[in-house]
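[stage:ingest] chain + small molecule (arginine)
[stage:ingest] validated
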Amino acid sequence: MRVVLAYSGGLDTSAILLLLREKGYEVITVTIDVGQEDDLAGVEERAYKLGAVKHYTINAVKEFAENYISKAVKANALYEDRYPLGTALARPLIAEKIAEIAKKEGAEAVAHGCTSKGNDQVRFDLVLKYRLGDDVKIIAPVRELGLTRTASAEILRRHGFEPPGAHKKYSVDENLWSRSIEGGVLDDPAAPPPEEVFAWTVPPEKAPNEPLVLSIGFEKGIPVSINNEKMGLEKLVRLLNRLVGLHGYGRIDHIENRIVGLKSREVYEAPAALTLIEAHKDLEKLVYTPRELRFKKLLDEQWSDLVYQGLWVEPLRLVVEKAIDELNKWVTGEVVVKVYKGSLSVIGRSSDYTSYSKSLIDYDKGWYPSAEEAEGFIKIWGRHSLAAVRSRGI
Ligand code: ARG
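[stage:predict] done
[stage:export] tokens:
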């Protein structure tokens, strides 16, 4: 019997590897590189030490950037207005890769380390079912046995292994787009996050006294350059994470509504994601008609909700993406941002595709509606409202 395990190299998935072997499975481990800064060679070594028969390390960073992050930028994707969806976006990609390996290896089952309290189980399972069929055997020992971190550590010790990361106080999930931190003292929503939870951003008060000013170029909604230097999205996101993080921008602390009926306190770091979304939104305002702008917000929210809620497979996502792509065809231009001690402001923007006209807006010269035109417009514009309010006597 063969099982393909989504293996992060952490405490829980290491214990799961041992549990699966105890059950008589040949375990094939798969680690997907989505830009997390883990020692992946070390993860592979651990998998073999714990008895995996085969291990795959799959570099999917470029694919993550080009097929997932690019969509998130175009959709200004922020779940409940705050969370840039790093974890939520990477899960479907990881599940796709697990399904591919399971097919290739002719595995009877797939396994993961998700808990029954989280969103990730939904994101994984639905893509696995989509690719491998409804009857796919999904083994999720944390969900099935209520495996705790202490129990996982015990299993490892019982087999004579030192539990990896047993001392860790937080549950961290990292990829190119964001770093998610949960658990420990953060479970008290009233407690401020201790400085030790952050790794990508400096505390704003310790950021340099000189602001960082950057020009970001977009083509059809996709970021393509920094300070006029063209680069691929993966490189651009890495660069921004570093540059902007050094100026203390990119921290998020909010209460989130999970799919599974729980509210959770979540802390994230996402310097590049927040910068790119702010810049992209600003450029959209320059480009879109007022109707497009208002409609786009609905599309963005719908897309973010579907992705967060594990519905990557929902056909509506593709429909919404088509509309988002259509609108983004015109989102080409430059946005200048200034990052200073943990805050970001857009200080300039330009595009060839805009109805903005300097000469029209100028109060001193240029086109003016005549008094007659303006008065006539106001009369007609307000007629509905004035007539209604009068008819109600309010
Ligand atoms: N709440 C976020 C989400 O559902 C992040 C989950 C992060 N997972 C973790 N193990 N820290 O997408």
